C-alpha cells in the first residue's frame, strides 16, 4: 500500500469522494467530523487535502471561492485495492486455519468465557 494511504483520514476522505463524486472542502470536512463525532483541526484537514492532490490522488478545482475535490483514477484504484485487501481480512480470506491458530486460541465468534 502506498505510504500516502496509511492515514485513516486520507482513506476516509477518498471513500467520501468515491461515494459522492465530488465535494467542496468544507462539506467533506463536515462529513468527516460527523462520522468521527469530533472536530478536525482545519490546518491538518487542508494539509491532508493538499497531500492527496500533490500525490495525484485528488483533483482540485475552484468554484467561486470554494475548492471542489474529486478522486482521480489513481486515487480510485488505491481506494479499491485497499477495500479488496480489507475485505479479504474481514470476509475470511485472511482468516487463519484451525491448524495455524496458536494453542488455546478461540474463534472470534466463540469467545472464551473460562475464568
Question: Briefly, what is this?
Answer:
This protein has 115 residues and is of the alpha+beta class. The protein is built from four helices and three strands, in the order H-E-H-H-E-E-H. It has helices spanning 8-20, 25-36, 42-54, 73-90; strands at residues 22-24, 58-63, 66-71.
Structure report:
There is one protein chain. A hairpin with a 2-residue loop joins strand 2 and strand 3. The longest helix is centred in the last third of the chain and has 18 residues, at 73-90. The chain has helices at residues 8-20, 25-36, 42-54, 73-90, and strands at 22-24, 58-63, 66-71. The protein contains four helices and three strands. The model is unreliable at 110-115 (pLDDT under 50). 49% of the residues lie in helices and 13% in strands. By secondary structure, it is α+β, with helices and mostly antiparallel strands. The termini are far apart. The protein has a three-stranded antiparallel sheet with strand order 1-3-2.
Features:
about 120 residues, alpha+beta, disordered C terminus
Amino acid at each position: 500500500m502506498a505510504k500516502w494511504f496509511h492515514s485513516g483520514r486520507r482513506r476516509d476522505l477518498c471513500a467520501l469522494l468515491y461515494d459522492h463524486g465530488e465535494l467542496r472542502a468544507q462539506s467533506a470536512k463536515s462529513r468527516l467530523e460527523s462520522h468521527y463525532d469530533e472536530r478536525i483541526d482545519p490546518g491538518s484537514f487542508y494539509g491532508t487535502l493538499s497531500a492527496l492532490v500533490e500525490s495525484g490522488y485528488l483533483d482540485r478545482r475552484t468554484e467561486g471561492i470554494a475548492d471542489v475535490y474529486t478522486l482521480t483514477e489513481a486515487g480510485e484504484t488505491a481506494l479499491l485495492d485497499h477495500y479488496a485487501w480489507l475485505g479479504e481480512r474481514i470476509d475470511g480470506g485472511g482468516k487463519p486455519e484451525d491448524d495455524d491458530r496458536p494453542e488455546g486460541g478461540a474463534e472470534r465468534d466463540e469467545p472464551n468465557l473460562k475464568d
